[in-house]
What we know:
The chain has 99 residues and is mainly beta.
Amino acid sequence: MKNREWEYIFTKNGTIKLMKYHGAETDVSLPAFINGTAVTDISVNTFGDRKLRSLYISENIKFIEKGFFKYNYISKEITASAKSDRYYSADGVLYNRER
């Protein structure tokens, strides 16, 4: 599936996994929903070789594919939604709730 900014697939749970970003922004917010369906996963190759300045992790994101931060360059900060039960951020760094 595809919309103007995102290419995505449906997971076996009926939620959305982001596969590719087609937008032009370098300050990117992951959507919490696309067409009313929760966005819960993000693929390792979502941003390809694009360099981002900042990334906002929405409250619905539950799974960030292994290797995502190895292959995606984010120069300034990563921020997690205060409503997230899986992630939080401090000083521009993303942590899972277990640290």
